[in-house]
Design goal:
It is built from three helices and eight strands; from the N terminus they run αβββββββαβα. It is of the alpha+beta class. The longest helix is centred in the first third of the chain and has 16 residues. The protein is globular, with a radius of gyration of 15 Å. The relative contact order is 0.18. Bound molecules: zinc ion. Zinc ion binds next to helix 2.
């Protein structure tokens, strides 16, 4: 049975560490962690989560775009656990959009990210996968990948003026849809 995990919040040193690679993907603790992260993500209306956000400094993240109350315009996809992911290449084009973070509740930031990326990762069965991601899904990956490197979205902002509260964000997207 999957367990809901507690989210580490900004200020917790685990969010500032460089996460270690996972060596035994099929090992039971890794598989359980994946199930727990999937359950925790579903429960918290997130579209992505990284292992350091639950206090585990390992290179594992989940990309799980879907429309939900926090991101009503997100595209739908199967939640995808990615182990030891790598950013292989990226577009020159950079796009800005609003991001939030389960570890930084209450605020949103306008964050520049590559519009398209090519990535590699191991799936939960240990198979190497190669994918191209674009737009919102590429954004989720870059946000979660940053967590493995000890960065949060605040580090990527061009200005602190690009921070707004959740309440103002919800007004903003209500106006633009
Ligand atoms: Zn985050």
């Amino acid at each position: 049975m999957a367990e809901l995990l507690q989210i580490s919040q900004l200020g917790n040193p685990v969010l500032r560490q460089t996460a270690e690679p996972i060596t035994e993907i099929q090992a039971q603790p890794v598989q359980s962690l994946i199930d727990d992260l999937l359950a925790t993500l579903r429960h918290s209306n997130g579209v992505g989560i990284a292992a350091p956000q639950v206090g585990v400094s390992r290179r594992l993240l989940i990309v799980a775009s879907r429309p939900n109350p926090r991101y009503p315009h997100a595209p739908e996809m199967e939640p995808t656990p990615m182990i030891n992911p790598r950013l292989v290449s990226h577009s020159d084009e950079i796009v800005k959009d609003w991001e939030g973070c389960l570890s930084i509740p209450g605020i949103r930031g306008l964050v520049p990210r590559y519009q398209a990326i090519t990535i590699e990762y191991y799936d939960r069965y240990g198979n190497l996968q190669h994918q191209e991601l674009t737009d919102f899904v590429a954004r989720i990956f870059q946000h979660e990948f940053d967590h493995l490197e000890g960065y949060v979205f605040l580090d990527r902002l061009e200005s602190t003026r690009n921070i707004i509260t959740d309440q103002e964000y919800l007004k903003l997207i209500a106006e633009t849809c």
